[in-house]
Amino acid sequence: MTDTPIHKVAQATPESMARRIRGLSDRTIAWIFVAPTIFLLLAVNIFPLIWTIRLSFTDYRVNRPNREVEWVGLQNYERILSDPDIWATMQATAHFLIWTIVLQVLIGFALAFLINKKFRGNDLWTTIIVFPMMLSPAVVGNFWTFLYQPQIGLFNYVVAFVTGADPASFSMIGDVHLAPWAIIIADTWMWTPFVMLICLAGLRSIPDSIYEAAECDRASKWRQFWTITVPMVLPFLMLAVLFRGIENFKMFDLVVQLTGGGPGNTTTLTSIDLKREAFEKWRTGYSSAYAVILFVTVFGLASIYVKALNKVKER
Amino acid sequence: MNTKHLMTAAVSALIAGGAATSAAAEDLTLCWAAWDPANALVELSKDFEAQSGHNMSFEFVPWPNFADRMLNELNSGGKLCDLMIGDSQWIGAGAENGHYVKLNDFFDANGIDMADFIPATVTGYSEWPKNTPNYWALPAFGDVVGWTYRKDWFERPEIAAEFKDKYGRDLGVPTTLEELKDIAQFFQGRDIDGTTVYGAAIYTERGSEGITMGVTNALYNYGFLYENPEKPYDLEGFVNSAGAVAGLEFYKELYDTATPPGSSNWYMGENIDAYRSGQVALQMNFAFIWPGVEADPNVGGGKSGYFPNPTGPAGQFAQLGGQGISVVAYSDKQDAALEYIQWFAQPEIQARWWELGGYSALRAVVEDPGFASSQPYAQTFLDSMAIVKDFWAEPAYADLLLPMQERIHNYVIAGEGTAQDALDGLVRDWIEVFEDEGKL
Fold it and tell me: Which among A52, A170, B96, B310 would be 20 to 30 A from A35, CA to CA?
């Protein structure tokens, strides 16, 4: 028994240290190992969260270090929740969130379904499709501003080619009705590959034997799709929706680069609005309350969603 | 003293001198916006490095992020910048929040007299409170919004004739804003050499300060005032006066009828690009771009002309740009930073600054008999500097700017509500800011 790995480690431990450790319980040793991580979590996540919650009840402004900080209770929360501009921002975010998720799931799943078939050049096509998500959102934002340029933009020329309209007759990022769609199109272009990859993982996890059994039972392709493929990919799809939902709820860089939140407030998403309150208007207390509301919203929705996801997985 | 002693003394002096120099030599960092004048300043500063032994480093941030980045730096008490060429509107916050070193004693001790600088730049860039002899910066770069136009297009006989037929007057430099609008509308969608061109590139940018720096050129001239001249912070009826509403409506009409499609978020860079690429007949922009326009093979060398912001029903004004140079209070190298300001204030350095493309605010430079003819745009610069007005320079500058950006952009670009609604809303926002500040 003297040549087991544990014994070797024990022998390699210096006597002085071994004497010290011998006195410690397993629980204590476990805590010693976990403590650095817990400390980091407390310092980086928990403390700022508690501090933000505390600030949200004050009128603190970080750009007025000499100003006396007053405790304002729930006033910041009341102001935020009764501000029609904030609700307009929430609405813009919901519009962006819902449409990007719907489009990305539909197109991503369709692409995954196609890529899952065996054909020549499969790997090459996968690489090409995945390419947009490898780019930086800021680069994608910049890139699409050129594509949407009315005089020289490729997007306008393609639309003009299809519809016969004058390419300079519409501006995707300058028109209040088109701008919300402009950001949805750019985000969908960039992140559909991500959804596709997750769906592809789901499709490849379905054993062939199930389809073979269905074939034996003379189930049609359509029936196989709805009774085998969709239910078995659903947990993966839901996971993709969760990831994209959380990511797009805090979408910032791509939209700032593309529209700057405009024209007007039509593409001002909550994260852009929050940044303006916190780091342009310097209303630290107010923006802390705003951040807490957003945190609770995302956390609450994500928790409900994860429960639903677990139920689907259990089926 | 024999040769040996002389040599010893010389070597000792050299060592002592070298030691003194290395003890005093500092690495100074100057923070400013990333634009053409900054490159000129790098060139100019080589002389300072040679004279003083200090090393100069530069932190240049592109305009859209300049205020964000630098105000963050100042608010956090950062030591990155020893010298700051901050925007004119930051001066209140710089002074009241203790970001900048007060320069009065330094100016007195070194014979730097603010009377030697263009008065508008002293008020705009250096004083806080305004119109009091409390100086927090040395005027560094005079700038003002003006207009550039395609002189070569204006001079084409067929275009000039068509314009005269339509408007009954010659096509030339507009003297009023209404005339400017006519000209811009005349060029809108016009075919020139097989290319569709547009009227004017104007400021519409939403994210930083763009649309405010543009619209004020219409607002001022139609009667907008920031406050009651008799009663500070009294806004009602001044910010949203009938004249101000007409000015805002003018700007919206100009945007709707005479600007390139897709120009809904344009500021300095986009306007320059549109003009240089031959998309527009006119562009609104700060004077700093004029040396670049003159040097451009497509639009320079006599193809472009320059004129100050035209007059409106309530007078002729133009939005002040430009900056003063300040010593950052958090810097550990304030003495060396002050040395830089002392060097920069010298008339010969200021003259060289103008030669390199920097707009000097020193009267000895701009009042020199040869100045007006030194560049095609020099006279326009002088005329424009004589009619400047500036945005609030209160410590709450950012809080005042953001609602203006939002209200104006939402009305002009997104077409939300009326001009009256926008300005009434702006009054409410500004009152809230001043109440928060304890000034109302």
Answer: A52
Across-strand partners of B325?
Answer: B85, B138
Q: In this complex, is the C-beta atom of B65 within 8 Å of any C-beta atom belonging to chain A? A: no
Please check whether residue B264 touches A, CB under 8 A.
yes
Looking at the complex, does the CB of residue B412 fall below 8 Å from at least one CB of chain A?
no
Q: Are residues A195 and A235 in the same domain?
A: yes
Residue A21, pLDDT score: 67
**Interface contact flag, A264 B207, Cβ < 8 Å:** no
Under the banding of pLDDT at 50, 70 and 90, the label for residue B136 is very high
Best of B208, B273, B406 to disrupt the A interface by mutation (most A CBs within 10 Å)?
B406
Average pLDDT value for residue range B378-405: 92
Residue A156 belongs to some domain of the structure: yes
Give CA–CA dist A174/B60, Å, rounded: 29
Q: Is residue B3 part of a domain?
A: no
Domain count, chain B: 2
Do A105 and A37 lie in one domain? The reply is no
In-domain check, residue A197: yes
Maximum distance among all Cα pairs of chain A, rounded to whole angstroms: 85
Mean pLDDT, each 10-residue run in order, chain A (315 residues): 70 74 82 93 93 95 81 94 92 96 96 90 90 93 92 91 88 91 97 96 94 92 93 93 92 92 90 90 92 93 89 78
Residue B174 has pLDDT above 70, yes or no: yes
Minimal Cα–Cα distance from A174 to chain B, Å? 5
Contact predicate B334/B101, CB 8 Å: yes
Q: Which residue in B has a C-alpha nearest to residue A255's C-alpha? A: B207
A179-204 and A84-115 helices, crossing angle to 10°: 40
At residue B212's C-alpha, the angle toward residues B73 and A273, to 5°, is 60
Please name every residue paired with B280 in a beta bridge, in sequence order, or none if there are none: B198
Per the domain annotation, does B7 fall within a domain? no
Confidence at residue B8, expressed as pLDDT on a 0 to 100 scale: 44
Within an 8 Å CB–CB cutoff, is residue A282 touching chain B?
yes
Using an 8 Å Cβ cutoff, are B214 and B268 in contact? no
Q: What is the CATH number of the domain that holds B166?
A: 3.40.190.10
Query: Is residue B396 less than 8 Å (CB to CB) from chain A?
Result: no
Question: Does the model's ipTM exceed the 0.85 cut?
Answer: no
Instruction: Quote the domain boundaries for residue A283.
Output: 77-314
Chain A residue closest in CA terms to B400: A281
Would you say residue B7 has pLDDT above 50?
Answer: no
Judgement on whether residues A121 and A34 belong to the same structural domain of the protein: no
B421 touches chain A (CB under 8 A): no
Q: Taking CB atoms and an 8 Å limit, are A263 and B262 in contact across chains?
A: no
Taking the Cβ of residue B274 and every Cβ of chain A, the question of whether any pair is shorter than 8 Å is answered with: no
Angle between helix B242-258 and helix B210-222 axes, rounded to 10 deg: 130
Read off the CATH number of the domain in which A164 is found: 1.10.3720.10
Q: What domain range is B428 assigned to?
A: 145-319+396-436
pLDDT of residue A2: 58
In a domain, A69, yes or no: no
Q: B187 in a domain, yes or no?
A: yes
Question: Are residues B289 and B170 part of one domain?
Answer: yes
The kind and range of the H/E element at B282 are strand B280-286
If asked whether residues A155 and A269 sit together in one domain, one would say: yes
- Tell me if B97 and A63 make a contact (CB, 8 A cut-off): yes
Q: Is the pLDDT of residue B420 over 90?
A: yes
Asked if A165 reaches chain B (Cβ–Cβ under 8 Å), the answer is no
Residues B283 and B135 in one domain: no
Whether residue B279 sits in one domain with residue B135: no
The pLDDT of residue B19 is 39
Number of domain units in chain A: 2
State whether B163 and B290 are in the same domain: yes
Q: Do A264 and B71 touch (CB under 8 A)?
A: no
Domain-located, residue A60? no
Among A37-41, A262-266, B226-230, B420-424, the least confident range: A262-266
User: Do A30 and A102 have their domain in common?
Assistant: no
All residues of chain A having their beta carbon less than 8 Å from the beta carbon of residue B412 are none
A151/B402 touch (CB, cutoff 8 Å), yes or no:
no
pLDDT of residue A191: 96
B68–chain A nearest CA distance, Å: 7
Determine whether the interchain pair A262/B68 forms a contact, defined as Cβ–Cβ distance below 8 Å. no
Per-residue pLDDT for B138 more than 60?
Answer: yes
Q: Determine whether A74 is exposed, middle or buried from the number of CB atoms within 10 Å of its CB (0-12, 13-18, 19+).
A: exposed
The verdict on B325 and B203 lying in the same domain is no
